[in-house]
Description:
Layout: E1 28-32, H1 36-42, H2 47-67, E2 72-79, H3 87-110, E3 114-118, H4 126-139, E4 146-153, H5 155-168, H6 174-178, E5 191-194, E6 213-216, H7 226-238
Parallel strand pairs: 1-2, 1-5, 2-4, 3-4, 5-6
The protein binds farnesyl diphosphate.
Amino acid sequence: MSAKAATDCLPASANSAAGPAGGHGARHVAIIMDGNGRWARARMLPRMVGHQRGVEAVRRVVRAARDMGLDALTLYAFSTENWRRPEDEIAALMGLLKRFILSDLDEFCANNVRLRIIGDYRAFAPDVVALIDHALARTAGGTGVTLVIALNYGSQDEIARAAGKAAAKGVVTPATITAELDTAELPPLDLIIRTSGEMRLSNFLLWQAAYAEMWFTEVHWPDFTPEHLEAALAAFGKRERRFGGR
Ligand code: FPP
């Protein structure tokens, strides 16, 4: 695989939907994709089938995010805690990630999707790292939606790293820490969605969530559709955000 020039998929036009579109006003949505295992168990299928169907949900939601005019969609795909899962499940998740990138990279390019990673994906196997690097380079010029995949990501680790970098530069304030986070170049986080009925953040975007809205659904991730994203954005559009003011 050659690191093909980033110009390979330079945009023909910007995101076709109109800015923070659809009247919902959100620019950056993050999703904790939970419930692949429960989805599979309810159908007496292997966990892996739940993860496979989870990838199909990822595909649907990336397309929907583009259509709904989001600037950034951040997906929690592999946490620093997920290393505690059985080795065969970890290997299978890595395989799915690779297949997802290999099969969808052309579509990202065609649709102006820019890929970003948060978390330390360099801890993954060399072939996975090389593929991710290739995809990052190839989509770097995309000016449509930014698809951010959280890989080997833990928010406390991210904050500690950012605080360390800010301290090394001599000024530690909320602003200098924010500027050192993995998300520094992304729009502020507007909305966090979590599927499958759990209501916690699980070490995901803790700093960025300071003023984000939350939307929870009982739906397991493999059943998540663009209509669910639309419902979450509609709910977001009705929230009154005061950012601590009145
Ligand atoms: C939660 O389900 C899901 C995960 C830990 C992994 C999410 C991964 C995918 C959707 C597939 C790969 C992702 C990409 C971007 C290609 P769970 O296993 O914790 O479900 P459970 O809580 O019901 O057991």
